[in-house]
Amino acid sequence: EPMKTFIPNEILGVAMDATVPQVKKAYRKLSREKHPDKNPDNPEAVNEFIQITKAYTVSKQNFVA
Question: What per-residue confidence (pLDDT) applies to 2?
């Protein structure tokens, strides 16, 4: 299966003009829901969690610039 396009805002479920607190809140919510420890039966949980973390890291860097 081909990898989806990496669009941080879509992964986090926030608007393109989301504020820092909105991005952080979305990341924290998703990371709690998708964390591999909370989803031991989901083989994709690790990959989903990594994508969420990458999306947050990239979004955070966009605010620092």
Answer: 56
